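Example: 3-hydroxyacyl-CoA dehydrogenase.
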Amino acid sequence: MKQITVVGSGVMGKGIAYSCAVSGFKVVLNDLNDDILAKAKKEIDELLDSSFRGGFLKEENYENAKMNLLVDSNLEVAAKEADLVIEAVLEKIELKIDVFQKLDRMCKPETVLATNTSTMSPTEIGAQTSRPDKVVAMHFFNPVHKMKLIEVVRGLETSDETVEFVKGVAASLRKEAVEVNEFPGFVTSRMNCLIGNEAMNMLMEGVASAKDIDKAMKLGLNHPMGPLELADLVGLDTRLRNMEYLYATLGEKYRPCPLLVNYVKAGRLGKKSGKGLYDYT
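Written out as structure tokens, the predicted fold is:
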């Protein structure tokens, strides 16, 4: 495999592009326009520089990553030579399907198309293409360059060859893969959304402060990050979209906490907006 294309330069797209580039792959990062991509490229370069200065990257890996990472706002140009495309756009099924239908027309017949969705159906997405056997979910975790896991989620038509191919990519990125049969929320998002939503309910009910809820989970249950801190990192708007999808597919226990709904309405989206369940200003 020579080239990986990443579609979407948000938090996850930038992290995936960085991880692929430092692992020796040619990477083309795509988004809607050149301004968005220039900002994303600058942030990836800053992470490369700090990783090199901190001794986390060898000079050879650092130099190769700088050369290997390209950006292009033209999706067809970015994807036409790709052996693997990883989609990392917003968690909206209509948007993902639109991207996959375009990629299906633009990419080589043998190209594998992967979605970084944390909850949605690779079967539904793959069914809108002419290559459902080559459509799979590769669920990365934030921050991508630190987190070791990739959930490889098999759709109904996903072939064994496709699953083994993306497991091989995961190994090349020095990450561990777990294979999951498709079900809403997979393994981690289904558990994580439930825990985070209950933490928000406890905050809303006045059971404890956000800081103490998170501290209890970290020190009492050995979680590396509290559920409210994590929700702010992921983005409360993203978390709400995930909860709404799980509520629609799995039922009442995933009803979004009213506090989450109100915070998103108020524009309190977490770290990226400066204020969420915590104040970062």
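The mean pLDDT is 94.
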